[in-house]
Structures are given as structure tokens and as C-alpha cells.
Specification:
CATH topology of the largest domain: TIM Barrel
Helix content: 25-40%
Strand content: 5-15%
CATH architecture of the largest domain: Alpha-Beta Barrel
Strand order of the largest sheet: 4-13-12-11-10-7-6-5
Largest sheet: 8 strands, parallel
Length: 468
């Protein structure tokens, strides 16, 4: 072994010497180091997306949404209490329940305010992954959302609370009464944060026989998601659709999901006038199976900004007590969830975090040669290796952990329910976040204006007042 070690050390030393000498002697334009300096100007992600575009000549499909964190959640902190208001005596008394669409004939009642967002079968996830999501939602006391998909009986059977997404898909087995009449809430989806209202499709050569049967597609037919929802072109059309869906389902809540934008108030006004029960604010940080980087990175409003504007607008119109809000987009931790609720959300959607939690230790099945998502995507090479029950258990544990942390946070705030948190429980670290959220600045005394009038400088000889 000693001889082998010595030979190996000698060989490595010679290779390293040659590499270093070449780096130090080659002109910069010929130097291997050029790739290092290039990726300091053009990031490795930018470089990879450049070459991928050069290879295919088609729009890219980047998984999981934007790489940017637009909402500065880290610049909001909670205000724990001690004697000003006593902390909650027993965490077991903290209520975690939430009711969505309180004025609907059949409101959606959940045990926790964290809901599994729409991640469709076929367009995104495998059948196994969809069933695991449904099982976890039942175990944790929440709901799962079908996404832009066709009806999966096994999913409905496994989900105690089931949200059907009334979507823009153009296939025969989409948006049929026999399917959405089974739902506990219907979500009219006109767009999403990671893709706006762009069209999407799954090519026929990527569709197997089971997919084709479930969606009702002919051989050789693509599964197409259009930019518009068929038959919906105005506020009047939306009102007719909402009325019909409520009648056909016996009054389940109807929600309205769109990509948050600067037209946010106008969109909400149309929805409220149409009788919508729940508004879904899908921010620019939202995830997706595969969206175009242009749309992911440069379209929409951040989740925080859009959420605050939506809450303020509903309060201004006097309808906040009857229209619920679900915040979505880039929410990954209990801190994100509770801060979103403090800013006015009744509940939150999670997608990316749910997928990661679901995969959990099963990622060892894909490493080191495949990404973990190959276990859960419809197109994943390893989707048949996903252990459904283990995936459901892992996601249930994640949800239970998040809610338990949120409960501890509420105890420290001296509240008795997750729904009791509000903006007064927060302070902001920066003037920008204070202005965005209407929350007081952390470096000013409580109760003072966020942006006090600038004091005039004292004139010569004038005594400068000492601040109290």
C-alpha cells in the first residue's frame, strides 16, 4: 500500500503542477480560468440557460419557478409579549382551524391553514405522487388541489377535503360536472404566478395510454392548456360561471386564482362582483413543473406586496369578512406561513415545499445520477419507485411540524388561535418593508408614525430639544 500511495501522490502532484503552470502561463483568452471569471459576470445559471437555448432553439421549461426571492419576509419580525399581554398559558388551547368561504352554503373547514397547491397529474406529477399528496392532506387535516388535470378517482378517494381546479385545459375529460361536483371547493384558475396566463402543452409522444384514457385524448393528440378559459371573456361571464358552479355543487366555496399583477384590484373587483368566496393570491415566486424563465423572473407581483394590497382592497370595499384569502408563492417555512397570516391571509398554499417533503429520504433512490424530482414527476424515470405511503407520511410529518411551530409562535404572541395574528404582531426592519406592509418600524418606538415628518434643523443659538 505504501508504494501505491507514493505513486498516487507523485502522479497527483505532477498533474497539479502542470495544471497550475498552465493556468499561470496561458494568455487569459486561452486560459481555463476564463470560465471562472465568466461565471462571475454571467452566473452559472445564466450560462447554462444560454447554452440550453442555443441547443434547442425553443422556450425553456425551468422547474420550480423563479430563482429570485422577491418578498423580503426576513425583514419582518414578530413581537413576543411578557406582561404587556401574557403569553398563552397552554399551547394545547391554541386553535389551528380555518374556514374558507364563510358565506358559502357549504364552507370549507380545515384543521390547519396550510393547503396543498395545484400540481396536476400528467402535466406535472405522477399518479403515485398525487395519491401521496391526497393521503397526506387527509392525515394532516387539510385539503389537496387537483391542479390543471383530469379527475383521478384514487385521489378523490384518498382526500378527505378535495379542491377541484376549474382550469384552462382543452381536453374532453376536463371541467365536467360529474367530476367537480365531488369537490369541497372549486378553484377557477385563470393563471398562476410562475406562468401567468401563458399556454402550455404536453406533447402526444410524452403521453402514455393511461394518461390518454384519463384525459380522454385521441392517439397522437397533445394535452393543451390555453391562455384563456374557454367561454370566459368578461366579468359577466365569470358571474354566470360562479352562479352555475354554486348551483351544481350545492354551494361549495368558489375561489378565483390568478397571477398577481399590478391590475390586482381590478381583478379582485371583477371576482367579488361575480360572487367569488375565496381569492387566491399567487405571487411571482410561485413554483411550477416547468415555466419559461422570462415569465418566472419578470412577470407579476411578489407575494407579500400582492397579499397586502388584496387585504387592504377587500377591507376598503367592506367585504373582507365574507371573502377569504389564500396566499401562495415562495412560502417555504412556518415563519413564512405565519407572517402571511399576520398580513391578512386566511390560509396558505404550498407546492415546492410539499414536493421536497414528500420525497424526503427517498431521494437516495435517485442520487447521484438523477435529480430527486424523477421520483415524483409524470415524466420521471423513477416514478414507479416512489413509496406512496412513505411519501405521504413524510409530508404529513412536515405539515405537523410546521403547524406545531406556528402554535408555539402564537403562544409567544399571547394569542389563542392562528387566525388571531395580525399586523400589530409584527415590526419591520426596513422603511421599504414598513411601507409595503403598513407595519411599524423596529427602530422606532411603538406607536410612532412609520415615516414621521422630518424635523427642521435648529437655527444658530436655538436650543435643540432632547428627545424623550
Amino acid at each position: 500500500m505504501g508504494v501505491i500511495d507514493e505513486v498516487s501522490r507523485t502522479l497527483v502532484d505532477k498533474i497539479a503542477d502542470q495544471l497550475l503552470l498552465r493556468l499561470m502561463r496561458d494568455p487569459y483568452v486561452e486560459n481555463l480560468w476564463e470560465i471562472i471569471s465568466t461565471t462571475m459576470k454571467v452566473t452559472p445559471r445564466d450560462l447554462m440557460e444560454i447554452v440550453l437555448r442555443a441547443e434547442k432553439g425553443k422556450p425553456l421549461g425551468r422547474p420550480f419557478g423563479s430563482v429570485y426571492h422577491f418578498s423580503p419576509w426576513q425583514d419582518l419580525l414578530f413581537n413576543p409579549v411578557h406582561l404587556v399581554r401574557l403569553p398563552t398559558a397552554d399551547q394545547k388551547n391554541v386553535d389551528t382551524k380555518v374556514t374558507l368561504g364563510p358565506n358559502a352554503e357549504r364552507p370549507l373547514e380545515l384543521q390547519i391553514p396550510i393547503i396543498l397547491s395545484g400540481m396536476s397529474f400528467g402535466g406535472a406529477l405522477s399518479k403515485q405522487a398525487r395519491i401521496a399528496l391526497a393521503k397526506a392532506s387527509t392525515a394532516a387535516g387539510t385539503a389537496t388541489n387537483t391542479g390543471e388535470s383530469a379527475y383521478l378517482p384514487e385521489e378523490r378517494e384518498a382526500a378527505a377535503k378535495y379542491i377541484y381546479q376549474y382550469h384552462r385545459g382543452r381536453w374532453p375529460h376536463g371541467n365536467k360536472k360529474e367530476f367537480y361536483a365531488l369537490a369541497d371547493m372549486i378553484e377557477i384558475q385563470l393563471g398562476q404566478g410562475a406562468q401567468a396566463s401563458t399556454p402550455q402543452s404536453t406533447k402526444a409522444d410524452k403521453i402514455d395510454e393511461e394518461f390518454r384514457d384519463i384525459f380522454g385524448l385521441e392517439a397522437g393528440e397533445d394535452a393543451v392548456i390555453a391562455s384563456r378559459l374557454d367561454g370566459l371573456e368578461s366579468g359577466k361571464d365569470l358571474k354566470h360561471l360562479v352562479s352555475r358552479l354554486k348551483e351544481e355543487t350545492g354551494g361549495v366555496p368558489i375561489s378565483y386564482k390568478f397571477a398577481a399583477s399590478h391590475y390586482l384590484e381590478e381583478e379582485i373587483e371583477l371576482a367579488v362582483n361575480a360572487g367569488i368566496d375565496v381569492i387566491v393570491i399567487d405571487g411571482a415566486e410561485a413554483g411550477t413543473h416547468a415555466g419559461q424563465p422570462l415569465v418566472e423572473d419578470a412577470f407579476g407581483l411578489p407575494t407579500m406586496h400582492a397579499l397586502v394590497r388584496a387585504v387592504d382592497y377587500l377591507e376598503e370595499k367592506g367585504v373582507r369578512d365574507r371573502v377569504s384569502i389564500i396566499a401562495a408563492g415562495g412560502l417555504l417555512s412556518p415563519a413564512h406561513f405565519l407572517k402571511a397570516m399576520a398580513l391578512g391571509a386566511d390560509a396558505v398554499y404550498i407546492g415546492t415545499a410539499a414536493v421536497m417533503a414528500m420525497i424526503h429520504t427517498q431521494m437516495v433512490e435517485s442520487s447521484p445520477f438523477e435529480p430527486p424530482t424523477q421520483l415524483v414527476l409524470y415524466s420521471g424515470r423513477l416514478k414507479d419507485e416512489l413509496d406512496i405511503d412513505l411519501a405521504a407520511k413524510s409530508l404529513t410529518n412536515y405539515l405537523n411540524s410546521c403547524v406545531a411551530e406556528m402554535v408555539l409562535g402564537v403562544v409567544a404572541l399571547g394569542k389563542n388561535a392562528l387566525t388571531e395574528v395580525n399586523r400589530q404582531d409584527l415590526c419591520a426592519l426596513t422603511p421599504a418593508v414598513a411601507e409595503i406592509t403598513g407595519v411599524e418600524l423596529a427602530y422606532r418606538r411603538k406607536g410612532t408614525a412609520v415615516f414621521p415628518m422630518q424635523e427642521q434643523p435648529a437655527t444658530i443659538g436655538e436650543e435643540v430639544p432632547v428627545p424623550h
